Every structure is written in C-alpha cells, then in structure tokens.
Protein 1
Amino acid sequence: MRASGRKAAFWLAAAAGALVVAVIALLLNGAAIAGGPALGRANPAPVGAKAVAEVLAAQGVDVVTADSLDAALAATAAAAGRATLLVYDENALLDSEQIARLQDAAAHTVVVDPGFALLQGLAPEIGFGGVSAADQAIEAGASCSSAAGERAGSVAALPGAGLKTLRIPADAAGYAGCFTDGAGASVLVQGGGQDARLSFLADPAILANESITAAGNAALALGLLGEAPTLVWYLPTLADVAAGAPPSMAELSPGWVTPVMVLLVLTGVAAAVAYGRRFGPLVLERLPVTVRASETMEGRSRLYARSSARLRAVDALRLAAIGRIAGRLGLARTASLDEVVAAASAATGLPLHAVRSVLVDEQPQNDSAMLALSDRLAGLEGAVIRGTTPPTSTPPTERMDP
C-alpha cells in the first residue's frame, strides 16, 4: 500500500490540482453557465432576462419560449396577430432565408443587438453607431416617437460601460430613433407599418438582470415587450442550423465504423494494461564480461586517430605524466602546474622553459610531431625518476680482518 501510494502520488496531486481549477472556474463562470444563455427567459444570472420575463408574466402577458424558428413562427401564428416576437441572435446562427421569414412574422418584432445579417435582411438602411459614452444615461429626447421610450425617459448601462447604438442615415425613410446620444446614434430604432412593426434595441444590457433597474431600462423593456397579450421569446439555437447543415462524418460513415473504433480503443487499453503489469522494478546484475583496460585504451586511441584529435591525445598523456611526476617529487595533490614544472626542472637540471614546453606549451601539428613529443615526455619522466633516486652504496671488495 505504501509503495503504491508513492507511485500514485503524482497522479493524485495532478487530479487534486485539476479539481481545484475546475471548482474555481465553476465559481467564476458557473452562474452564467447554469442559468442558461444570455437574455434567457429563465436565466437568473446577471446576463439573463428572467426578471423582465417574470414581471411580464405577472402582468398577464403569456410568455412563450421558442428555441427554433419554426417554433417561434408557430407560436406567433397561434396568437392570431396579437403577439410580440423577441429575437436575440447572439451567435449569428440565422441565415438570410431564415431572416427573411421574420419580416412579417408578428405584429411587432423586437430585435435585440442586431448583427450585420439581421440588419441587411430586415432593415438594410440602418447602420451601426458605435458605443455611447460610459457612465452616461441617454435621454429619450423630444424626437422620440415611441410611447414606451417616452415613458422610460432615459436608459443607461452598468457603471463604467456605454450602450451600443444604431445610426439612421438622413435618406432612410420610415425609421425613427429614440434615446439619441450626442453623436446622432440611437439606442432604439423603430420602423415598418402598422401591421408589422420593427423595433431594433441596440444593446442587450437594457433587458439583462444586472442592469434592468438602471435609469428607465425596466420601463422601456416592459413597454416594448408587454404591448400584446402574447410574447414569443425566441433565442436561435443549433436547432436552426441543423436543418440546412451538411451531413456530419457520423452520418456519412457506415454503421460498423463506430463499434470497430470502440473495440480498437478497448483492445489498446487492455493491451497496455496487460503489458504494463509485466514490468517489475529494475534489477542490477553483473555482466559476465570483463573489459580489459588495454582494450579501452586502444578503442579511445582509434577514436582520437580517426578524428585527428592529436592535442586531446597528448593532453591525456600529459595529465597522466604530470600526476606521476608530482607524486615522484613528493608534491601535494593540490600543487599547481607551475610548482610541478619548477620542481621537475630542479630535479632534472633542465631549463624551466624546456620542461614547460614538454608538459604544457608545445602543440603537435602532425603525427610524427606527436610521437616525438610523447617520447620527450617519457624521457622527462625518466629523468625525474633518475634525479630523485638516491645513489646506491657499493660494498667494499677487500676483506677486513678483525
């Protein structure tokens, strides 16, 4: 158990770290993910719109949630012309044909934060106006022709943020703006006829839970969305894309591909587990082969010769010779090279520069020079031995009488 715990310590620590990261990510973003999409009908997160939907439902408005274009059109048709259609295509999932079907879908269609495709399909005259100044509420103004806008009085974003706006060109007829900032861009743009009115609400923050209570956001939201007895809350989803999407790889592949892939994966995992269990701890054992030092020396010599590393070979000889000479002269192992050279010169009587040339300075340029230097190195070592060997006393040859 103790050995298994030590082996699994890394993976346990990694799993604990991953769990901590997942918990932190869940705490930071979990509210928005758990609540649903932005401006979701039942999303209580800051970016949701449950507050507006619940107030409208309490006032008697039938709020119908639709997650596909067909469901939204069916709900508006069932209301017999007495429905308001809310459209918020955050991820631009609707194509041009689907957008064209929204043109006369309801008596009043409110498009929140329209993208380029929605503006081109429903109101090509309208353009983007940028973002208003931060921390500044925008008044409805005298030119606002919207009853809901007049009752709201003003709209604002969260502190530190501005509101998205739309711009109405001078030659665009049939459109009126409300909540216009100093640059001439409006937060609310309305147009269309009496039977099929269009309202473009540039910023979703006006309906979001976190900013619905700022300025007159709540009054504007209730006024726009609560005019008719039925409100169809439509947020496009992947269900709108699947109908016209090309077939996936799973649809194009034969039916036996998935079972075979699963079987191969399981077989690979089983084989890895089976072979992995056969390996035990490493065992050190002596090899029944003894490599002689002469073979190692010959092999290293061949490598030096093959790479023409003359200086490296000579340095190896010099290092060995210097060690033997220092030991012969009785020098310490920590003695410097200059001390060895000086002691060798004193013991042999050779000039200091000659000894240093043999031990350090001379660099052979060819093989013959290297051989000559090795001979001089051997000669220097022999001279040191002779210089440090005391003379032997010769016994007398004549017999001495007692």
Protein 2
Amino acid sequence: MLGVVFWEGRLVDSCQERADGSLLLTLSEDPSHRPRCGRCGSDCVLLHERRRRRVRDRDWFDRHVWLDVPIRRLDCYQCGARAAERLSWLDTGERITHRLRAWIEALVQILPIAHVAQLTGLHWHTIKRIDHRRLQTRYGTFDAQGVRRLVMDEFALHKGHRYATVIMDAERMRVLWVGEGNSREAIRPFFELLGKEGCQHIEAVAMDMNTAFDLEVRAHCPNAEVVYDLFHVVARFGREVVDRVRVDQANALRSAPAQRQVIKRSRWLLLRNRDNLGNEQAVKLEELLAANAPLATVYLLKTAIKEIWFAPSVRDGARRWKDWYRLAIESGIAPAIAFAKRLRKYLRGILASAIFPLNTSILEGVNNRIKVIKRMAYGFRDSAYFFLKIKAAFPGKAR
C-alpha cells in the first residue's frame, strides 16, 4: 500500500537503515501497473532491459530517504523507440523525485542555498540547478506587454567597477530585464527584445544622468520622454558640492584644530535628509550651519533643488529652476557654480518630472534587495542565475 500511495507503479519490498542513519527502501514493480513509453506515453508490453537506480526522496522527519528503484527500458510499438518507462513521480534520467524537488524549490525561496544543502545533504550545485530550472521556467521568458513607463539604473555586480543594469516597469513594479554592463551596447538587447512596436508605446523613462542610457532610449523610443531622477541629482550634488565645500572649509581651519574636527566629522549631518535626523543631530546641524556661511549656502541649495522635481507644472518647474540657478551662480562658490552649469544641459529631463512623476527610488529598493540576495548566496559566479533571482524577487503587482 505504501508504494501505491507514494510511488505509483512500484511496491516496497524492504526498508533498511544505513550506517549514516538514512533509510534505504527497495522497490519492485507492481504487476498490476502497465508500463508506459517514456517518449510517447503509450502502453508497452515489450521489455528491452531492466536496470536499478538509486534515487533520493524527500526526508521522513530527520531521516534522509533513498530508493532502490527498478527502471525498465521498453520497446515501443507506437513510436518505435527504446526508451525508459514513464513514471509519474520521477523524471527520466533524474536521481531525485518530484516530491524532493518541490521541497527544495520551496526551501530555496526562504533560505540560502548553502543552508538548504546542509539540511538536505544534497550538493550545492544540485540545489542550484534545481532552483535555476524553476526560475528559468517561471521568469526566463521576456514579457513587456502593455509597458508604458520604465525606470533603469545600474548596480555593482562585482568588485572592480563591474556593473549591471536593471530595467523595471514603473507602473507594475516588475523587473523586466537585467543585463551585464552599463553602456549603450549593454542595454541595447532590451530594446531589441521590446521590438519596434513596444518601443513606440514607451512614453517615459526615468534614469540618472547617464548619457549612455539617454542616447539609447532616444534612439529606440521616439515617443519617450527622458526623466532625470531626483535621488541621483541630489546625491551627486552632495558628493560634488557639499562634500567639496566641507573639505575646503576644514582645510581653511588648520590653525583651529577643534573647529576643523567639527567640520570634518559633519559629512553625514550635511548629506542626510533633515527629516531623518534625530533631535540631537538636528541641533548640531543648526549650530554648524549658523557658524559657517559657505556650508549653510550649499546646504540651502541642496534643499531647494528638490523643489524643482515637485513642481505642479512645467512652467512652475522652470520658474523654480531659474530661481535656484540664480542662487547657485550668485553664491560665488565655485563647486556650486560648476554644478549648476553642468545641470543646465539636463533641464528638459528635469522639468519632465512635472508631467511624468517618475523616479528611480524604487530601484534603490531593488539595489538593496540585490545586496541581500548576494549575501544570502555568498556571492554569485553565475550571472544568468543571479539575474533570474532578481526578477523573482520583483514579480510585479497583479493587474
């Protein structure tokens, strides 16, 4: 009865405990079960040969379970093939049952592969192969039907300035494509997969000020408006202007070590959003800005530049830009002036945020999740598998 329930077409002859504590079940053929051809599925009566195979099944409590299974090779009248018989619980050539594979597929969605390997006693590469096949079946097909708005960003793939690009459906929060590199050539396969008709349906693409992304979008999507992301602009202003002025002010106070240390240690106070500061940190920030005019000026510019992206219309955004640009130029601070002049080239994409309120902040969340996936896997050497894991982590909202 046990064999009929768990292993259709087979009966349990014996159960033996092995030296390592696992169980070995020896199975035999059920005479009442008619074998079927592994190729065409037809009933077969002619037997070509019989072999036995050692197969892993799902654990019973704390015991690993092995099966010693007789496998018949049949001579089929219907298709003329000599093929191994078809079993409902074991694929041809496999050495793990469907039940064990389904258990592993559930485990790898919540545990690192190394932990699943330790739990099941299977090799790391065996578990990775099972998971890779699951992901390929579910997420391996490119599907961008109905996509109108995109966000794209790059993330660090490995150390040594190796990057990959992720492209997401901004409306459904679904990762559409991931590829190695951050150049025009690297992202071109996405637009080729999207096709001419799909590209024409794209109305807006949010990105950072990456010239490669910009040029490739304009080349393939004639109806798309490029929207430059607030997060990246503010982050770049923090690095190129606020940080530069902070270092210059600290260097100017070499004769006053105590004041110099205060400014040197104020980097995160100046770069973080004011809303994210605690009461004590907010007081320190106010004291710092009150004591240093150049730092107060660039901090004000950093805060004011955000208002351009929240303008209710293009006209109002243009007015806010003119006010901010005038303040930056009149500040007399060289890094702020240089930044404002460079940013002016990207004005159209900045003002487009009033029409298409897109940003890549969702991709910043994707980047954080990517780091978690890499840590869980202790690093990925197989980029294709890694990219499938990213797509699985962001399947998108249901329509």
